[in-house]
Amino acid sequence: MSETPIEAQNLALLNQVQNLQPEIEAAYQSLLPPAKVMNEQPRPIGLLAKLFGRRPTPAKALSANKLD
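Above: the chain's sequence. Below: its structure in token form.
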């Protein structure tokens, strides 16, 4: 056992328990999925889309239509 008085041990434990909020927030953030990264360049158009005349969508239009 420790030579530290039980009252001091209890106060130290109480301080640790009262200051758990930052650790709880960090644990919660680690459980969240990573944020989606929007590509600056438009996705390439497939062969069928080219045949039917589809044009690439500009990156700014993609980010404006984002529903997140």
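The first helix runs from residue 6 to 18.
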